[in-house]
Structures are given as structure tokens and as C-alpha cells.
Amino acid sequence: MKTPTSLEDLIDALRCLPGVGPRSAQRMAYHLLQRDHEGARRLASSLDYALQHIRHCEKCNNFTEEVICELCLSQRRDAALLCVVEMPADLLMMEQAHCYKGLYFVLMGRLSPLDGIGPKEIHLDRLLRRTQDGVVREVMLATNFTVEGEATAHYISELLHNKDLKVTRIARGLPVGGELEHVDSGTLAQAVIERREI
Ligand SMILES: [Zn+2]
User: Fold this and answer.
1) Is residue 11 part of a domain?
2) Domain that residue 146 falls in
């Protein structure tokens, strides 16, 4: 028996997800079609909606449905402080740690030359412009303590050198190779308090 083209297309489409090979894509497709029509419809419509409405905040680059996100517009944040993180999940971790009241810039990645991810792919030109608004005084680098996260922090600190900004790196209360997302909020709060100038 030949697999219908539409089913083949679905299996093929599911393979765009990270870590999903042909076998698991096939399992997912069978599951959705056989056992979860409602879930499949929800998936299709929320994916479609998100693709149409989710964009990057013009200031912090995080996902938002607005031109400028709620956090960037908040009057309660200290606009002189800008924290640079790799991913939206890192921003959420920082917020949960309740240790930081400034604004953010989300790189949406890290420098990784082997994967073809250079300064342009992580929007460093926009970060540079963002820091030059005359309000930002300190840029706090909170990229992960992995090889790539450290290299990214180093690159950014060079980029911001002589720009009349204080550039700090969160302290290494975090484990070497550690990712912010997997650190408890107490450790993260301590790392922010003990940040050092670089
Ligand atoms: Zn924003």
C-alpha cells in the first residue's frame, strides 16, 4: 500500500522540529490523525495564528504581538540598565529570580561560527544601536557559561569597548558550561548581585 501524499507531507513537515527524525515524525502524524483530531486542529490553528501575529520587539528583540513589548514600555523598569541574554527562556529565568529591574536585549541565539551563526544572525548591529540611545549606562552580559556563551559575551564586550558604557558580566556562581535556563533562581540572583565589570 502506498502512503497518501498528504500523510507523507505531514510526516515530512513534522521533521522541521528540532530532534525529530523520520520515525518520531511518523509516530506523531499517526497519533494526531488516529487519536487526537482536536489536538491536531488546535496545533494547526495556534501555529497559524502565532506565525501571523508574533514578531520581535523593536527594542528588546523578544517575541511579542506588539511593536514594542510590555516590558520595554514599563515605567517601573530602570532604562539605564540593559541585560543581554541568549533566549527568551533566559529572560523568564531572570524575571523569576526577582533580582533585576532593568531592561533586556534577547539575542535569539549565540555566536556559533561552526553552525554559521555570526554577529549578524544574533542582531549585534541592533544591540549596538540599542545601547547608544543615551539612556543605557550599563550593559550586563548574561549569556550562558558555555564556550559559545562566553565567546559571545567576549565579542559583545569588545564591540561596546570605548562606547562610554559600563559593561558587566554576571558572576560565576553559575556552573561552568551552565545554562541560565537550568539554574535555580537563588543562584542566578546571586550571580547578578556579584556581577563584575569587564
Ligand atoms: Zn521589548
Assistant:
1) yes
2) 78-169
Residue 42's domain is classified under what CATH number?
1.10.8.420
Tell me, in angstroms, the distance from the centre of ligand 1 to residue 65's CA.
10
- Residue 180: how many CB atoms within 10 A of its CB? 25
Q: Quote the ligand 1 centre to 62 CA distance (angstroms).
A: 6
How far, in Å, is the centroid of ligand 1 from the Cα of 97?
Answer: 19
Give tens-digit pLDDT for 85-101: 999 999 999 999 888 99
Contacts by 29-35, CB closer than 8 A, 24 or more apart: 33/7
Please list, residue by residue across 119-144, b when 16 or more beta carbons sit within 10 angstroms of its beta carbon and e when fewer do. Answer: eeebbbebbeebbeeeebebbbbbbb
**110 and 32 within one domain:** no
Helix (H) or strand (E) holding 78, with range, is strand 78-85
- Whole-number Å distance, alpha carbon 58 to ligand 1 midpoint, is 7
Q: pLDDT by residue (tens digit) across 2-30?
A: 889 999 999 999 999 999 999 999 999 99
What is the CATH classification number for the domain harbouring 120? 3.40.1360.10
Number of independent structural domains in the chain = 2
What is the distance in A from the centroid of ligand 1 to the CA of 91? 11
Same domain, 113 and 36: no
| CA pair distance 176, 179, nearest whole angstrom | 9
Residue 52: CB atoms within 10 Å = 9
Question: How far, in Å, from the CA of 51 to the mean position of ligand 1?
Answer: 18
